[in-house]
Amino acid sequence: MLNLIRADFYKTIHGKVLKVCFLMMTGWIFLCAYAQKATIGMREYLVGTEVSANYWDSFFNYYPVVFPLIIFCSYYFSNDFRQGTVKHYIEKGLSRWSYFFSKLVIGWIVSFFFLVSAFLIGLLCNKIFFGISGFTFTNISNIVSYIFCEALYHMAVSTLAISLVFLIRNSSVSMAVNALLIFFGYLVLHGLESILGLGYNITIFWAISNINKTRIDMAVQWLPTAIIIFFAYMIIFGGVIGTIFKKRDIT
């Protein structure tokens, strides 16, 4: 499995899909920062730290990492199914669980890379468009907690996206289903809450909606939830789809 992870990692960083998705993410972040300058950067009553806080509070509202991430997952991880190489790996003695888990690991690495890169690009945009440092309104502890929380959410999203790829086995359909989940997943869960008359909020465990709920100055309080969500997605989605993949025909 480690050899497959190394081979996949090499193929990922040298492939066009990662580069295209990274450029897409970068362009989207700059575009959103430029748009926000007109709304929060031009309010003369806001001091520099308030401008920076407003910027980071809404940074993930437009899903600058999620969209490129699901495009990457949907296209890249369906390659082996499209090219018929899954059977080749299994026939060489690699267990189906090891194969599936190795893909999840690559997805988590890419998620973390995208998230940290997005944060650094955001700092650059903060300086370019608002003329101030992104570190002026909070402390390092909050920033580290914020990055860790968001990384766990995005890793959970990649787990779901990759699981759906293994279930659907078609890049276009997987991409469409993942996009629909971004837009309507929260509404479906909220509807279930109402229909079933649940006495607690299950939407808090929907990773995609939590991505734009977490505030940088309150990230420490969200860490337990983020950790639970990541492991829940890994066990529920990864476990269920991994079991299906183990029993399913791969020819």
From TrEMBL:
Chain segments annotated as transmembrane: 20-40, 60-78, 99-123, 143-168, 180-208, 220-245
Cite the entry's keywords alphabetically: Membrane, Transmembrane, Transmembrane helix
Pfam families xref list: ABC2_membrane_4 (PF12730)
Matching entries from PANTHER family are given as:
INTEGRAL MEMBRANE PROTEIN-RELATED, MEMBRANE PROTEIN
The protein's name in its UniProt record: ABC transporter permease
